[in-house]
Amino acid sequence: MSPGSHGKLVIWTIDDGRIGLANQTRGLAEAIGALVPAKIRPFVVKRKLFNLGRAGKPTPDMTTPWPDICIGCGRASIPYVRSIRHWTDGKALTVQLQDPRKNPKHFDLVIPPQHDGLEGENVFSILGSPTRITPALLEEAAKDFADKMKAYPRPHLAVLLGGNSKHHKFTPKITKRLIKSLQGLLGNQVSLLITTSRRTPKRVIRALRRQFADQDQAWLWTGAPKDGPNPYFAFLQEADAVLVTNDSTNMLTEAASVGRPILLFNLEGKEEKFNQLYDSLAGEGLARPFTGSLATWPVEPLDETNRAAKEVVRRLYVRLKENKDV
Fold first, then answer.
1. Which domain holds residue 178?
2. Same domain, yes or no, for 223 and 267?
3. Would you tell me the crossing angle of helices 249-258 and 19-35 to the nearest 10 degrees?
4. Does residue 259 come out as left (phi exceeding 0), alpha (psi in the -120 to 50 range) or beta?
5. Which of 94, 142, 181, 220 counts the highest number of beta carbons within 10 A?
6. Is residue 297 part of a domain?
């Protein structure tokens, strides 16, 4: 297999369409494309296919040219990423993100977060998860929302809110504590750029709307049609610091990748793996606990997606050289 058509690599990304997974597969693919010219083809597969064996056949839209690199994330992607090896006679480099809960030998490369503790010859762990964050993406997003952003004087605190998960709960008590803290920041002339996620409980969103929908120094985006286009990346770009709830690896990694100080806001519950992530971010000087006030300090952007991309490219060209020498 020569690299792609017309001198470009062909990269397939496979996930179930959820934004948290899609941002990882496409973020890594885009980072590879920044190193080597590439054509990226995203595929969304059904979540109900959880057998973790091989897929019997490609989906109807999985047509040639076959990929040089196939990147999957999430359980639904595993049968297809495994099968790419068979469909390309072992020529495509298969990459699985996160811990696949399957022997890493079924893939050419597994890229999990360090806090998963996965080890193996073909395992390349990174701090956090791959993201789509690049200076160009952030600058373009900021331009799209520049006129509205002018209404919110600095300093800006971006507030990224997750929600209920297996290990964390956004309880009523936590909601009251959050709102009280944010109101205190408004009183100290801090502008709030607040965004919720698909896991944020509706009662939390209602409480936020009651308190901040009509505040001159608060921009609240909840995904409702009346909220308009998603300003998430503009919020990150324009933030002086980022408050992040402690339930999301992706949000924490995205904030760190922008290079903004992270103020960690704890939901109820805890999990050892997440604690390891927090400790790692704190050890890199990226995160501190939120104490109710705005804090800023110099931060270097986290660059783990680019580091992972370089490893994928390195392994691909080792593969190509081996095939050529055979």
1. 135-289
2. yes
3. 40
4. left
5. 94
6. no
* CB of 68 closer than 8 Å to CB of 39: no
Helices 249-258, 304-325: axis angle to 10 degrees equals: 100
Residue that is last in its domain, among 127, 143, 164: 127
The set of residues, in sequence order, having a beta carbon less than 8 Å from that of 11 and lying 6+ positions away, is 29, 32, 33, 38, 39, 40, 41, 67, 68, 69, 70, 71
Instruction: Give DSSP secondary structure letters for 93-147.
Output: EEEEES--SS-GGGSSEEE-BGGG----TTB--BSS------HHHHHHHHHHTHH
192-212 confidence digits (pLDDT tens): 999 999 999 999 999 999 999
Q: What is the pTM of this model?
A: 0.90
Total domains, the chain: 2
The answer as to whether 198 is a domain residue is: yes
Residue with token string 């971010």 = 281
Interacting residues of 2 by C-beta distance below 8 A, sequence separation 6+: none
Work out the average pLDDT over 223-248. Answer: 95
| pLDDT in the model for residue 52 | 59
